[in-house]
Amino acid sequence: MSQAETDILRLFRRYMAKTSEMLFFSAGVANSQTPQFKRAMQSLIERGMVTKETRHDAYSLTRTGFQASLSA
Known about the structure:
Blueprint: H1 3-14, E1 22-24, H2 35-46, E2 50-52, E3 58-61, H3 63-71
Antiparallel strand pairs: 1-3, 2-3
């Protein structure tokens, strides 16, 4: 797992997001507008750890992602 992916999972943990709870990533949080953040988030989505929600900039953890966030 890349450092950027680990950082994203740590943000979920910092805000105590559990499985299926949405977390909004605004432009200021984790530099969400950077290409590195976007690649890392897309990788987490493809690996089944994060789900992109229909609300703008909203994501939620899957069970796999939640377990990974506990050890990130």
